[in-house]
Amino acid sequence: MSGATAQGARTRQSILGAAADLASVEGLAGLSIGRLAAELGMSKSGLFAHFGSKEQLQLATIESARHVYVEEVIRPGLAADRGVRRVSALCSAFLSYVERGVFKGGCFFAAAMAEFDARPGPVRDVIAEMQRRWMGTLEQAVAGAVECGELAAGTDPGQLAFELEAALLSANWYYHLHGDRDFFDRARLAVHARLLSAATPAGRRALL
Amino acid sequence: MSGATAQGARTRQSILGAAADLASVEGLAGLSIGRLAAELGMSKSGLFAHFGSKEQLQLATIESARHVYVEEVIRPGLAADRGVRRVSALCSAFLSYVERGVFKGGCFFAAAMAEFDARPGPVRDVIAEMQRRWMGTLEQAVAGAVECGELAAGTDPGQLAFELEAALLSANWYYHLHGDRDFFDRARLAVHARLLSAATPAGRRALL
Prior knowledge:
2 copies of one chain form a homodimer.
Chain A: H1 3-26, H2 33-40, H3 44-51, H4 54-78, H5 84-99, H6 108-116, H7 122-147, H8 157-178, H9 182-198, H10 201-207
């Protein structure tokens, strides 16, 4: 990559980082080129040169947020050993990412999902696909823990992933709504108790 | 109430009903007098006469949605006998209200919470208060079930209410995001299993 191209890529990344922060607070629907230009003190024409349209800016912002999510949640979660510890690590990594305020307004994807769930179109389709992948990651981790004998054989990975994700999402909402960190403890307790209830003796030892 | 006043109140109610539907799809933040006037084919000045400002319109819409929520969720839930059946009935009533599309875009309060959780101000304060009341209703129902010996004595009402609400909220999001009714079954299964896990023998009989 030439120096100029590398600098262009860095500029684009820092624009998209600011866009994702802004969208996590004010919403992705309101993320127009004009609004972002005002936030960054840049010219609208400069941003148009980068993104072309509001929808392209929204899609580029989602893609940039996906990279952050992979680094902050998926990678540390998958670093744990296969089994119930990996399921637990994915949940902990999500809660840590919200608690540390990686995005100013909370989980970028939760906010985007809530905003676009009832608005069909390419933006919703991409968000739905991201959400499916995340649920797929949780489900695979659950299935892995069943295979290695740490969760009971009859465990339904889709159902368990849904229940874990429910606790994680709710902690994200309630923490921001009430400004109360106790909701992270509630979610951690819910995840731990739910995993214990499905664990085999080997799984319970792994969770200690 | 005179005929003219009654008609005025009905007009106001039907405006606010349309406003709540619109907010559940497009968001409460975007609910301006201009946007609502366009949706209803009314004049902006007519709506100004009713509400005065965007914020007053938002607050009146929340109040109107609260009445709907009380009729559709709280009242049928509290109609069940005190005990674990009442906890279960509150959860079922919530899921039914979402599944029947009482508001076009899903639960009005979930959407409003997601939108305003990171935006301090009077609108967020009112939404936070509504959410606290709903959680309080669930907690009281849980505490009642503990008192009448249907849930185990050590049950933490705040924790259990959080876990139940997590499943309900997530069904609301995922149903709208993916257009898949199976998420209601996931939530019903989660609620039932969670209540069973905390139930005494009397509680388990009540849940059958």
